[in-house]
Amino acid sequence: MKKDRFLKGIFGTISILIFSITAMAQERLVTGIVRDEKNSPLNGATVSVKNNKATTVTKPLVPSR
């Protein structure tokens, strides 16, 4: 009885750890430049993920020196 309870506890703990790791792995960094029809960079453009509620706004470009 105690062994079964111990094994269930271990299994539950491992399941929670695996679930939390996969949940954290859903975030990805996407980089690039949003451009208009004239190929000029757009600052403050709203970017969204297709079939998802995730959205963000692009940051202003910093001119290179």
Tell me what you see in this structure.
This protein is an alpha+beta fold. It contains one helix and two strands. A two-stranded antiparallel ribbon has the order 1-2. It is rod-shaped. The termini are far apart.
How many β-strand stretches?
A: 2
Proportion of helical residues: 25-40%
Low-confidence stretches: none
Question: Percent of residues in beta strands?
Answer: 5-15%
The secondary-structure element order is: HEE
Spatial arrangement of strands, main beta sheet: 1-2
Structure class:
alpha+beta
Q: Largest sheet, if any?
A: 2 strands, antiparallel
User: Overall mean pLDDT score?
Assistant: 78
- The Cα radius of gyration reads 22 Å
Number of helices, where a helix is a run of at least 4 consecutive DSSP H or I residues = 1
Termini gap: 71 Å
| Coarse morphology | rod-shaped
Secondary structure layout plus pairing:
Layout: H1 2-24, E1 46-48, E2 55-57
Antiparallel strand pairs: 1-2
